Amino acid sequence: NAGVTQTPKFQVLKTGQSMTLQCAQDMNHEYMSWYRQDPGMGLRLIHYSVGAGITDQGEVPNGYNVSRSTTEDFPLRLLSAAPSQTSVYFCASSYQTGMPEAFFGQGTRLTVV
Amino acid sequence: KQEVTQIPAALSVPEGENLVLNCSFTDSAIYNLQWFRQDPGKGLTSLLLIQSSQREQTSGRLNASLDKSSGRSTLYIAASQPGDSATYLCAVNAAGNKLTFGGGTRVLVKP
Question: A28 — phi, psi (to 5°)?
Answer without folding.
Answer: 60, 35
